[in-house]
Amino acid sequence: MHVILEALAKDMEFTGDTERDMRLFLELHGCLQTADHCFDVAQEAQRIAHLYGADPQAALLSGYLHDISAVIPNHERIAVSRSLGLEVLPEEETFPMIIHQKLSRVIAEELFGIRDVNVLSAIECHTTLKSGASLMDKILFVADKLAWDQPGAPPYREAMLNQLDVSLDDAAFAYIHHLWQQREQLKVVHPWLKAAYDDLAHQFKATGSL
């Protein structure tokens, strides 16, 4: 195991109870708010999984661990990513917060022992989504946006909830379209987000719903 991961797991005894281990791991690193957010996202992901016939346990796991890399300070994320052999895109170097999704996948796999590729993929793209996104990718993406962790209600929430009654793709697109309309004001437009937007927009144009 990489020395960086060993250091993160110092004083941590993993039990295999992912909810318990997630909370303890984040609390040991002073990330109490993140632990609460991860729990909320997991519950929302499980709810959506039931709606769309996906594996509710996989949805829970992906939610519990999607932000587990919060233990790595933002200003260290690029250096840590490179040390772990992750590809760092120019947009991630400009805005390091985004690369936390890739780091969370590594921690979920290496420290929490997650082997389900659907769970790992969902964790890896939960902020941006990506082209060819799977059902679990979309479930976690939508759950993360609905389980808002800031004061007040997000401006896209009502639209997402309304579209979730139509389809998971519609709900995901409601959020991405919201971002796309203000892309000039964003710090960066991640290429995975653009690819997801293009995918969904093409799909809706083909069906005449856009």
UniProtKB/TrEMBL annotation:
Record-given protein name: bis(5'-nucleosyl)-tetraphosphatase (symmetrical)
Catalytic activities: P(1),P(4)-bis(5'-adenosyl) tetraphosphate + H2O = 2 ADP + 2 H(+)
Gene Ontology molecular function: bis(5'-nucleosyl)-tetraphosphatase (symmetrical) activity
InterPro entries: Diverse_Catalytic_Enzymes (IPR051094), HD/PDEase_dom (IPR003607), HD_domain (IPR006674), YqeK (IPR005249)
Plastid among keywords: no
NCBIfam families xref list: bis(5'-nucleosyl)-tetraphosphatase (symmetrical) YqeK
Record-linked PROSITE patterns: HD
PANTHER family: BIS(5'-NUCLEOSYL)-TETRAPHOSPHATASE, SYMMETRICAL, SLR1885 PROTEIN
One Pfam family named in its UniProt record: HD
Sequence ranges assigned to domain HD in this UniProt record: 34-149
EC number, UniProt record: 3.6.1.41
Domain of life: Bacteria
This protein's UniProt keywords: Hydrolase, Iron, Metal-binding, Nucleotide-binding
